[in-house]
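We modelled the chain as a single entity of 137 amino acids. Its sequence is:
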Amino acid sequence: MEGLKSGTLPPPGFYLRDYNLFYGAGQVNDASGNEVDADFEAFVYANAIRPIWITDLKILGASYGLDVLVPLISKDVKVGGNRDNVFDLGDIFIEPVTLSWHFQQFDLGLGYGIWAPTGNVNEDSLTMGTGQGAWRT
């Protein structure tokens, strides 16, 4: 998703990344990988904005930064004759600490983040909602 420099954090400044993710499926497989005879379709689209702030502050020689990831999720699922869809806020990822070192031949990054249960959970829906329903690190 990030490309060749996926492990590289940017230099000091404010940045805004915008991720667009698509997933589609038209079959269900069993544990052995064989297709199950089911009338199934799924399509998921997520747009996630990620503001990133890398400060001029140095900690252990690394640039200190922070970011947040805010996903908007659309799901459309059909199983048999039943279809359900949802569009809602997903779980927000808060990363209050990123440390990045930039060397001549490589970069090194370290971060700590928390997933906040901001998305809805709906176990009665085919989509299951847009969140996991728990704080996660």
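As a brief sanity check on the tokenised model: The longest strand covers residues 40-59. The CA atoms of residues 72 and 89 lie 5 Å apart.
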